[in-house]
Amino acid sequence: MNPTEELFREDAHLLRCEALVLGLEEGGGLILDRTVAYPLGGGQAGDSGCIRAGDQSWRFADARKSKQHPGAILHLIEGEGPPPGTPVVVEIDAARRDKHRRFHTSTHLLCALLPYPVDGCSITEAYARLDFHTDEAFDKEALQAGLDRLVAEARAVRHRWISEEELDANPSLVRSMSVQPPRGLGRIRVIEVEGVDLQPCGGTHVANTAEIGEVRVTKIEKKAAKTRRVVLGFDA
């Protein structure tokens, strides 16, 4: 089975696309030839949404990477779904994607403000958290002020691709201790927050830090002797 074309890699604001059904895995995983739905991975939750074929529709509660077919993305639906070869329309939940994009870029701003390795990450529509490998204490008010400043500066956020050789020549670009960029494709996707941060990332992001809005540092925790956790939330 061919890999699913990942439209979200090039345009995280794209919410809808036309696609063709390739198959259905046991457990309700509908595989399409292309999709706007981001699958769970890299600490970021998967998208949810709806798949339509004519006057029929199927909700998918999550999107995951297939273990049986490398490169394929599963849309977790209930029931049999449309048969292979059926043209469909995929539409993701806009509010969920919006929260994911805003939170994910916010975590990159945290990485710019806190120059420590990251050893844990979770990005959902309800909150985002990063675990930093350090025994240093964090100042909550100073961290909040830093986030407010970077959001207000309306810095451009863009993605580009570099070669695996370029990454090997700049290993400090990788901030995560637990999630490594995928290898074997010949290129690595990186996210750049203009003048602030540059690191490998496959997730969905805003196009400008001003889109993040009022993100709040809701909690700072000491999780272990060498782990400090920062949790982010939105006022609304």
From TrEMBL:
The keyword Cell membrane does not apply. GO terms for cellular component: cytoplasm. The keyword Nuclease does not apply. Residues 1-230 form the Alanyl-transfer RNA synthetases family profile domain. GO terms for biological process: alanyl-tRNA aminoacylation. It is found in: Cytoplasm. It comes from the Bacteria. GO terms for molecular function: alanine-tRNA ligase activity; aminoacyl-tRNA deacylase activity; ATP binding; metal ion binding; nucleic acid binding. InterPro entries: Ala-tRNA-synth_IIc_core, Alanyl-tRNA_Editing_Enzymes, Thr/Ala-tRNA-synth_IIc_edit, Transl_B-barrel_sf, tRNA_SAD. Keywords: Metal-binding, Zinc. It holds the Pfam family tRNA_SAD. SMART domains: tRNA_SAD. This is Alanyl-tRNA editing protein.
